[in-house]
Every structure is written in C-alpha cells, then in structure tokens.
Amino acid sequence: MSRINSFLTFNGQCREAMTFYQDSLGGELVLQTVGESPMAGQFPEFMQNLILHSTLAKDDLILMASDLGEQEGLVGGNMVSMSITCDSEAQTYAYYENLSAGGKPTHPVHAFFAGLMGRLTDKYGLNWMFYYDRTGER
User: Fold this and answer.
1) Residues 13, 45: Cα–Cα separation, whole Å
2) From residue 1, how far is each of 4, 62, 116, 127 by CA, in Å?
C-alpha cells in the first residue's frame, strides 16, 4: 500500500521539535544523531550531535524529521500544512491546545459542517489543520 508521510527539516532544532510533537500528540519517538550513524565519519565534528533521522509513530500517524537540509538552506512558507483527522472531539481540542503552546492559533477549533475544524501555526513555524467528523466517517 502506498502512503505519503511527512518529513520535516529543522536547523538544529529537530530533537527539541520532535520531543514537543511527542509531548503534544503522543507516540514513540526514535532519534538518530549523525554521530550514531554508519555515516558519522563523513561529517565534520560540529555536525555529530545533529539529528540525521527521527520518526514519531502513533497508530497511522508517522512524522519524520532531520536537522540535515539542502545546501541552499531552509525556506519557510504557508504552502503546506500538516492535517490531522482526529478520532474524537476531545482529541481534537487536546491536540490543538498542545500544539498551539508557544505558537499562533489562527482559527480556534469550531463547528464545521458535521464536525470540528481548527488551524494554527506552531512555535517552529509549521502550519497545522485539525478535523473531526462527528458522523464517524473519516
């Protein structure tokens, strides 16, 4: 089965951000530094503690990230949002509250057709959308 997973790139904040996402969403977090990888010898000393690869997994939610980006650097924007379809109203409100800490709530959770919807930008500049369908259909 094909699937699309999100892969985020941070500039030295990967460990901090992924720990924040684990605290906010739950799940199991695995982090691997450059120095812990078989490729450690290919990187300079100052990069050894950067996160080469991380994965946060909880049920169908899979979020991957790294500190290593393109040579051109990172460019933030509003073209992409992380969208979470929640399992309950309580989960929708909890995820929204947790991820808005230190960030910017842009649309509080509100009634939307037969469900709930909300949007925010977290403290790392990542846009999030939340949706819950009260009819039980995802």
Assistant:
1) 18
2) 10, 15, 29, 27
pLDDT (tens, 9 = 90+) of the chain, 138 residues, equals 788 899 999 999 999 999 999 999 999 999 999 999 999 999 999 999 999 999 999 999 999 999 998 767 788 777 889 999 999 999 999 999 999 999 999 999 999 888 999 999 999 999 999 999 988 654
DSSP annotation of 130: E
CATH number for the domain formed by residue range(s) 81-133 = 3.30.720.110
Sign of the dihedral defined by the CA atoms of residues 28, 76, 72, 47, in that order: negative
| Number of other CB atoms surrounding residue 91 within 10 Å | 16
The domain made up of 6-66 has a fold known as 2,3-Dihydroxybiphenyl 1,2-Dioxygenase; domain 1 (3.10.180)
Q: How many residues are there in the chain?
A: 138
Q: Where are the beta strands (DSSP E) in 1-138?
A: 6-9, 28-33, 51-58, 61-66, 81-85, 104-112, 115-121, 127-133
**Token pair listed for 132:** 């819950």
